[in-house]
Amino acid sequence: MMTKKILRALAGETLPTPPIWMMRQAGRYLPEYKATRAEAGDFLSLCYNPDLAAEVTLQPIRRYGFDAAILFADILLVPQALGCDLWFETGEGPRLSTIGNPGDLARLKDRDGIHTTLGPVYETVRILRRELPSEVTLIGFAGAPWTVATYMIAGRGTPDQGPAHALKASDRATFTALIDLLTGATIDYLSAQIEAGAEVVKLFDSWAGSLKGQDFDDFALAPAKRIIAELKSRHPGLPIIAFPREAGDRYEGFAKATGADCVALDNSVAAEWAAAHVQKDGCVQGNLDPSLLVTGGDRLVSETKRIVAAFSKGPHIFNLGHGITPDADPENVHRMIEAVRG
Ligand code: CP3
To answer: Which residues pair with 70 in a beta bridge?
Structure first.
């Protein structure tokens, strides 16, 4: 019998109370996270230290009793495993060696060369499967090809993904070859996480919203469909969550078109609209505004309850519309959970 609430919701069951977890639930808003990160030295050393990465994954489970744990790692480990330099500038974010021409692409490894670098991540998954409470679901993840490509092409995060759009326009062959390489590497990476014990995987396409029209079909939808089809054929029945952030009206039909079991919604879509247009096709996840965990108050409770009510007639996993921010108050997370679980 399937008892884990997250797996039941992903299988299409409408539960009396939605299961709950949070994007970036292991992170800098938690003092215990900051302590473990200091022990590891820096963020990347933490990602590649299986004992400490498992520890920070477990911290929010201990503190809050969430229904799911998300593997502690980062979407940018895949470019690093393909041979890009990766580092984090304190207070600024990620930096990578850039991909801008066929020569840069040719210097990257093949998709099957990634596992040496990523081995410690699979070990983190194995530790977590041993240590997690039996009712908690373990979620693995990767970045979607477009989102990861935006960082590789620009060498950093960008407000409008300008460099990636420019390469798509100026050198379509290099751009599509990069998307294809990432699609293959993502399949192999997620497959290895599943073999190590991940029970669900989530594909983060954080910049999907900047792809419009046919570009959305070609570079958000098609790669997700390929990744999901291959994972489903290798691991029948393994549930997959897709997060095409800021897809707007393209959220409608996304699950059917890609084969995803659940679509994660950002907080720019109204829950009432998504209940009618997205949840009709299956489970949805979302979509509280993360800034409410900073401001708290009555609005945190009323917005949480509004979202729970809007999605109450179908399968729903309660979550934020994006990651919790470092300035969030850990006490507000308790208030949110209390408002969901009653
Ligand atoms: O708790 C969890 O959600 C699991 C771990 C996780 C991290 N990053 C840890 C992290 C997950 C699922 C991610 C996904 C991720 N990483 C995304 C997609 C989701 C999203 O937020 O849109 C993206 C775009 C990245 C790339 C990335 N990693 C950026 C742009 C940054 C810098 C910005 C920031 O928030 O600092 C990171 C760093 C990062 N990844 C941190 C954490 C906890 C903060 C690093 C630190 O401890 O200093």
So the answer is: 139
Per-residue pLDDT of the chain in tens (342 residues, 90 and over written 9): 678 999 999 999 999 999 999 999 999 999 999 999 999 999 999 999 999 999 999 999 999 999 999 999 999 999 999 999 999 998 899 999 999 999 999 999 998 899 999 999 999 999 999 999 999 999 999 999 999 999 999 999 999 999 999 999 999 999 999 999 999 999 999 999 999 999 999 999 999 999 999 999 999 999 999 999 999 999 999 999 999 999 999 999 999 999 999 999 999 999 999 999 999 999 999 999 999 999 999 999 999 999 999 999 999 999 999 999 999 999 999 999 999 998
Identify the structural domains of the chain with CATH numbers, from first to last.
20-256 (3.20.20.210)
Query: Cβ–Cβ contacts within 10 Å for residue 328, how many?
Result: 25
Residues identified as active-site: 24, 28, 37, 74, 151
Inter-CA distances, 114 with 78, 151, 199, 235, Å? 7, 18, 21, 20
Alpha carbons 290 and 68: distance in angstroms, whole number: 18
Ligand 1: residues with CB < 6 A are 23-28, 37, 43, 70, 72, 74-76, 93-94, 141, 143, 157, 204, 206, 323
How far does the centroid of ligand 1 lie from the alpha carbon of residue 148, in Å?
12
**Are residues 174 and 102 in contact, defined by beta-carbon separation less than 8 angstroms?**
yes
Give the predicted TM-score (pTM) of the model. Answer: 0.97
